[in-house]
Design brief:
CATH architecture: Alpha-Beta Complex
Shape: globular
Number of strands: 6
CATH class: Alpha Beta
Strand order of the largest sheet: 1-2-3-4-6-5
Number of domains: 1
Order of helices and strands: HEEEEHEEHH
CATH topology: Aspartate Aminotransferase, domain 1
Structural class: alpha+beta
């Protein structure tokens, strides 16, 4: 792994995170600090971290409601961790090789809901509620 270019490490995990994040209403992606970062109306709701400063994690960092970070780390320290810089504000790091797509998507959706403005959340919830009843709706 030491001889593998950073851009090659974690490619599948980066695609997983991108697929989930860009499915959120009004989500946009841009590079921030050299890594894919996902925004809703200019506010960050997820940051991909590919071995950040050689910490050994291929992860996504997301905001969490008060108390959730400590609970997740306590219950599953092999998957969840306190990321640098944003961890002091309650964000949680998720080690991507330790979590399935469904659980990862659930955490990212909650992070998006925490950050998204009310008008975006309302529109997104209306769209999500409509889709199951419309078999021709694009997913």
């Amino acid at each position: 792994m030491a001889n593998t270019p950073k851009s090659d490490i974690g490619g599948e995990h980066r695609r997983r995170v991108r697929r989930i994040c860009t499915a959120m209403p009004e989500a946009t992606e841009k590079l921030s600090h050299g890594e894919p970062t996902f925004f809703v109306r200019k506010k960050v709701f997820a940051m991909f971290a590919n071995n950040h400063h050689n910490d050994g994690h291929i992860a996504v960092w997301i905001p969490a409601p008060p108390g959730l970070q400590a609970m997740l780390i306590h219950e599953s320290p092999e998957t969840f961790f306190k990321p640098p810089y944003v961890g002091v504000r309650g964000w949680v790091g998720i080690q991507l090789d330790g979590i399935g797509d469904e659980e990862l998507a659930s955490h990212i959706r909650e992070a998006w809901r925490l950050i998204a403005p009310k008008t975006v959340k309302t529109a997104g919830e209306a769209t999500a509620a409509f889709r199951p009843h419309c078999p021709t709706a694009r997913r």
